[in-house]
Amino acid sequence: MKKLIFLLLALPLIGLGQKQTVVSTSRYFPKADKVLEFEKGLTAHIAKYHSGDWKWRVYEIQTGEDAGGYMVVEGPKSWDEFDKRGNLGDEHTKDWNKNVAPYMSDKYSSVYSEYMEDLSTVPLASFTDKISITHVFPKPGLSAMVEDVIKKLKKAWEAGTQTVAVYKSVASGPFQYTLVSRFKDGLKELEEGYRKPFKERYEAANGEGTLETYLSKITESTDHVWAELLFYRPDLSAK
């Protein structure tokens, strides 16, 4: 009896330990002459199978090496929730293969990522319609140095009221950090003069002359970096 009472009391604590900080992002690329058909099929598929607790958010990739593609975001959820979700069934697969897959190219990618609250300046679920993503790939063994660089960057972001969500990839190809800038005021945030110069903000937060050290550590610790702009597509996403 005592064991049963203990287990019942422990259940709320077990639930608290399962933080919903994991997101799944998949990238799909329609054939150049089948964009409209792809969007129509994707919209219908999402409405039927990917709403409610597992709703899909769809972003159109505007720039960068994946321009022309669509990024689908699922979550945030806990690892346990993703684990227990299981297969969506034959009807789901048949619908995708019939109404979406025929209009896609062979290019595809999928990544699991964990939100890093200590490196971010915006809550995980505070989304915006226009974002930029900077993909940072550390050199092997130097991810801790990259995190230190991001911690100092965070101070400069805060000084400029920049809303940036930071994620790390998990078991999804080459390890990367993704820095997602969420533009509350739209793309005008990219205009020169919208904020104080980065150097001024960075050195005010981290000390005079520290920008040179920052640039040196980036060169030392990162293999490569690339960035892109994405726009949210509410017309394609789960309602």
Topology (elements, then pairings):
Blueprint lengths: L1 H16 L4 E9 L4 H15 L6 E6 L8 E8 L1 H7 L4 H10 L4 E12 L14 E9 L4 H17 L4 E7 L6 E6 L15 H9 L3 H12 E11 L7
Helix pairs in contact: 2-4, 5-6, 5-7
Summed up:
By secondary structure, the protein is an alpha+beta fold. The chain has helices at 2-17, 35-49, 79-85, 90-99, 143-159, 198-206, 210-221; strands spanning 22-30, 56-61, 70-77, 104-115, 130-138, 164-170, 177-182, 222-232.
Describe the protein in words.
With 239 residues, the protein is of the alpha+beta class. The chain has 2 domains: 19-113, Alpha-Beta Plaits (2-Layer Sandwich), CATH 3.30.70; 121-231, Alpha-Beta Plaits. The protein contains 7 helices and 8 strands, in the order αβαββααββαββααβ. The protein has helices at residues 2-17, 35-49, 79-85, 90-99, 143-159, 198-206, 210-221, and strands at residues 22-30, 56-61, 70-77, 104-115, 130-138, 164-170, 177-182, 222-232. Strands 1-3-2-8-5-7-6-4 form an 8-stranded antiparallel beta barrel, surrounded by 4 helices. A hairpin with a 6-residue loop joins β6 (164-170) and β7 (177-182). α2 (35-49) packs antiparallel against α4, α5 crosses α6 and α5 packs antiparallel against α7 (210-221). The model is unreliable at 1-16 (pLDDT under 50).
